[in-house]
Amino acid sequence: MKYLLALLLCISITVYAKPQKVTKHNPRAGSYLLYDYEIGVPQVAYNVDEIRPIASITKLFTAIVVLRSGVELDEKVVVQGTGKGKFPKKSKISRMNLMRSMIISSDNLAAQTLANTYPGGFNKFIKDANTYVLGMGLINTKLVDSSGMLPGNVSNAKDLARFLWIIKNNPVIRDIANERNEIISIPKGKKTIKVHLHNTNPSLFVFDNILISKTGFTNPAGRCVVMLVEKGGTYNGIVILGQKNVSARSKIATDLMNIDPLKKPEQTYEPIEFDFDFK
After folding, report:
1. Residue 214 lies inside a defined structural domain of this protein
2. Count of domains in the chain?
3. Catalytic residue annotation
4. 231 lies in a domain?
5. Percentage of residues in the chain with pLDDT exceeding 70?
6. For the segment 26-45, what is each residue's pLDDT rounded down to a tens digit?
7. Which domain does 118 fall in, by range?
8. Quick check: is 196 in a domain?
9. What is the pTM of this model?
10. How confident is the prediction for the chain on average, in pLDDT?
11. What CATH number did the domain enclosing 109 receive?
12. Can you tell me the mean pLDDT for 239-261?
């Protein structure tokens, strides 16, 4: 019943968010959000409405759009694109292995290949991706490529928290997006090549309750991460955007991960109004 209320009600509440000043020495104050889906309450929020580039968080959108298309994940497709990746260009790799490499190790070429081999091609992929995000109520989100390399891939913390809730039960994403390391064996002639994947999120190697994770980085976006976590038997969404380096992002992530879901944050934060229509 609590989940139903959290999903259906439009909640207007006051939460407490630690302010960050934007100065010439700190031009990327960024955004962050800890959202408790169980009771429909953000515990900590800062700059949650600010629309920002999301870099490789885009790859989670690529994953769900490809999965929704109904393509065969075991089908091998030709690796193609302009980015760098784990697999040689023109080699034939299954979509599932491309998906693993894209989500775990943030492989740009894998993301480009999935879009370029999408039914109808890249342009159809982009059209379907933006139709999907609008259909899900993600009105502040826009996608222009599949990897997140372009600054035109944008969203805000509120949309990304909603998106985490939408994809939380997808079996393929749940199976992949919390893997720390994986080895993919690729046949090449009479030999077998082993491709090592290492997750780009340091928090995964510290905490055991992260269910879905994806990092992002470009110069315009800064250091970003989204995480679906389980705290005390409840789902929580963590979104961090626009941090200046990995250490700053990880520090915020650790602070948010360690907040007790049964307690309110210390009220030393500046109160802000936070209207969240979570459907």
Report:
1. no
2. 1
3. 56, 59, 106
4. no
5. 83
6. 444 799 999 999 888 899 99
7. 2-202+221-226+242-277
8. yes
9. 0.86
10. 86
11. 3.40.710.10
12. 94
